[in-house]
Write a structure and sequence with these properties.
Layout: H1 13-76, H2 79-91, H3 95-116, E1 125-126, E2 137-142, E3 147-151, H4 162-171, E4 175-181, E5 187-196, E6 206-214, H5 216-219, E7 227-228, E8 233-242, E9 245-252, E10 255-263, H6 268-275, E11 280-284, E12 290-297, E13 304-310, H7 311-314, H8 316-372, E14 376-381, E15 386-389, H9 391-394, H10 409-413, H11 415-422, E16 428-431, E17 440-450, E18 456-464, H12 466-493, H13 500-514, H14 519-531, H15 541-544, H16 552-559, H17 561-568, H18 578-583, H19 605-620, H20 631-640, H21 648-658
Antiparallel strand pairs: 1-3, 2-3, 2-6, 4-5, 5-6, 7-8, 8-9, 8-13, 9-10, 11-12, 12-13, 14-15, 14-18, 16-17, 17-18
Helix pairs in contact: 1-8, 2-3, 13-14, 13-19, 13-21, 14-19, 19-20, 20-21
Organism: hydrothermal vent metagenome
Transmembrane segments: 7-32, 324-344
Coiled coil: 51-78
């Protein structure tokens, strides 16, 4: 029975006005949502561009530094320079020999300085007695850090670099002289390379150093200059943390802002870029302006690159486009609302007439379907009173066709069966319908309905799956027979392992229940426990019953039983990861197991439980090569191998259950 509703509703002008208002509000919301999403997309594009630009800047800086390192390294490895520094102490009082050697080394210094771009001509070469100095150039020092030869204007006093020079001697590697400032903010950085004694077998026998002092404003800072983009200016800074401040090296007014110090608390953007290099974020910089900022580490340097661009500049073009779209879209919303108002009055009556015709057709179709399907159908209201029951459900019930209407379902079907239907959630139930003699298994599906006036109702469809259950039972019985036959075959193949599979299953399931595994996990573990050792049917009986220690080849053959078992049952569709559990039962937490050498986080919990249960039963039972162990001895051995082979929680669960499983002690005597 279906209750028919033929009332045709009409919309009042007030409701129509509210609907138009809702459309306009929704349209405005969509516009603003679109603009926000568009801003997000634009910023994402600028994040990528900024990251690419920062990567290019860092690569440019690192390439320049690598070029200088390669230059000074080649010079330090020059054989003539090594010979000069190695023999300097012995010939420094011999004017003739010293003059000859100095001539060649001076030419080497001149050629290198010219090639490195440190001087423009040979006149800029000096000896140690020159008084005119600057902070840039190339020099050779002896092992006592005395200046032997340098380019013109190279500082005579190199004591400030002694620590870096000593570090180069100790490490045997090129060291970087960090940025420092001299007179009139003259910034200097450089490199120190140790020179190895000529033909020395001692890799730490250094006889002097090559020192290169450079002007970073010419050498590196050109990479920090502002770069013009379509949206604005990219700003590049080098920063280094010093206590609660950042030290900046940056471009300013066409020049360079050297060693400007700013508190960490006043520059959120720089703090983020410095501490999370590679990340990109919108934050306030030291001027209080929102910027898109990212940071990069510079190889072999304590300084980091901060690359940023103003958010306002990056969104400038996007904002103009968004204002245009906002205007057009607002006009479209207004036009659409007006058209809707015009069309609505014309279409309203036709629409509802069509809906009523459609509803009546669907209603009739539902009546035909519900009265002819073999499933039992019942509809209850929110108080569990019967609204509808099809003919198939009524068959066999001592009640007339209309007598069940608005009657509580428990009065018609009985309290037990009624509760079963009401609480169903697509589960299978074995129930006996009232006034019937046969047990029936029904799959109950439920769905919530909405009746006129938005009153809730609940549809229940009971599908008879008794025959399917019978088939499933027969298949299950057949599978158990096959498994029992395999177990008997395995027991006959290895008499020392008689009843091993059943006992392993009992121990594994007992542990799993204590550890609160789900029903599906328990089912998979039970099947895996029974089948786990079936692969030994492919292992020679001689190996299984051997009383002496197995050879390497025999051990290798025995370990193959895991793969044999997986292959035996690979064509069977199990309900759950049965084959995976079997495949991992001999894996160890430390990766020393087989066949794949898995480690702790890669091994399933079911396989960890099966490993402990299998070892427990094996050690409790006698074998061809040893006697059985007591429960206490087995538990001690398992505990000793936790963290390396067995899971500590699984072993702890086994300790807990062993206290109440006295019958397991009987396995020892068999």
């Amino acid at each position: 029975m279906i209750i028919k509703n033929r009332y045709i509703l009409t919309l009042s002008p007030l409701l129509a006005g509210l609907l138009i208002l809702v459309v306009m509000i929704a349209g405005i919301g969509i516009i603003f949502n679109y603009t926000e999403q568009n801003k997000f997309k634009v910023l994402n594009k600028w994040e990528f561009r900024l990251s690419q630009f920062a990567n290019a800047k860092v690569e440019e800086i690192e390439n320049k530094m690598d070029e200088r390192i390669e230059q000074i390294d080649d010079l330090a490895k020059n054989a003539s320079l090594s010979l000069f520094l190695s023999t300097y102490d012995s010939v420094k009082n011999d004017d003739v020999s010293l003059s000859a050697m100095q001539g060649y080394v001076r030419n080497l210094l001149q050629a290198s300085a010219l090639r490195f771009g440190l001087i423009e001509n040979h006149k800029m070469l000096s000896k140690t007695n020159l008084t005119m100095t600057s902070e840039y150039g190339l020099a050779f020092l002896d092992k006592n850090n005395n200046l032997l030869m340098s380019t013109k204007y190279f500082p005579r006093n190199v004591k400030k670099h002694n620590k870096i020079i000593d570090k180069a001697y100790l490490s045997g590697e090129i060291q970087i002289i960090d940025f420092y400032s001299e007179k009139k903010q003259q910034v200097v950085y450089g490199f120190v390379a140790p020179v190895l004694k000529v033909q020395s077998l001692d890799s730490n026998a250094y006889v002097g150093t090559v020192v290169m002092l450079l002007n970073p404003q010419r050498d590196l800072f050109s990479s920090l200059k502002y770069s013009q983009s379509m949206a604005g200016l990219y700003e590049s800074n080098l920063i280094k943390r010093d206590g609660n401040s950042f030290i900046y090296l940056s471009v300013k007014n066409g020049g360079f802002n050297i060693f400007n110090r700013i508190s960490i608390n006043n520059s959120v953007a720089s703090y983020f870029a410095y501490n999370q290099p590679g990340g990109v974020k919108v934050l306030a910089d030291y001027n209080g302006i929102d910027v898109l900022v990212t940071g990069r580490e510079i190889r072999n340097s304590s300084w980091k690159l901060v690359q940023k661009i103003s958010v306002a500049e990056s969104l400038m073009a996007s904002n103009k486009s968004q204002k245009y779209v906002l205007t057009i879209f607002a006009l479209l919303v207004v036009i659409m609302a007006m058209l809707f108002l015009v069309i609505w009055r014309h279409m309203n009556s036709l629409k509802w007439q069509a809906l009523c015709i459609d509803f009546e057709g669907r209603n009739n179709l539902l009546e035909i379907i519900s009265e002819n399907v073999k499933d039992k159908i019942i509809i209850l209201d929110e108080k569990n009173n019967i609204i509808f029951m099809n003919k198939n459900f009524l068959q066999g019930l001592p009640i007339s066709h209309d007598a069940f209407l608005n009657v509580h379902v428990s009065y018609v079907l009985g309290k037990e069966f009624a509760e079963l239907i009401i609480k169903s959630s697509n589960d299978d139930y074995a129930v006996v319908l009232p006034q019937t003699d046969n047990d029936k298994v029904f799959h109950i599906e439920s769905a919530e309905l909405s009746l006129a006036g938005n009153k809730p109702a609940f549809l229940y469809v009971l599908h008879d799956i008794s025959e399917l259950k019978q088939q499933h039972y027969r298949h299950e019985k057949r599978d158990k027979s096959v498994i029992n036959a395999l177990i008997k075959a395995a027991d006959a193949h290895d008499p020392f392992c008689e009843s091993h599979s059943e006992r392993t299953r009992d121990v594994a399931i007992t542990i799993a229940k204590v550890m609160n595994l789900t029903g599906s996990q328990l089912a998979s573990l039970e099947v895996a426990s029974i089948l786990a050792n079936m692969g030994k049917l492919h292992v020679s009986k001689t190996i299984l019953t051997k009383t002496e220690a197995l050879t390497k080849d025999e051990s290798k053959s025995l370990k193959k039983h895991v793969n044999y078992a997986v292959d035996m049952f690979s064509n069977i569709e199990f309900e759950g990861p049965v084959l995976d559990i079997i495949a991992q039962k001999n894996e160890c937490l430390d990766g020393s197991g087989y066949p794949k050498g898995l480690t702790s986080h890669e091994i399933m919990i079911e396989s960890r439980i099966l490993a402990v249960a299998n070892s427990f039963v094996a050690m409790m039972s006698a074998r061809a090569y040893r006697k059985s162990h007591t429960v206490k001895e087995v538990l001690s051995q398992l505990l000793a191998q936790t963290e390396t082979q067995y899971d500590r929680q699984v072993v702890a669960a086994l300790f807990h259950v062993c206290e109440n499983k006295m019958e397991w002690n009987a396995w020892q005597v068999i």
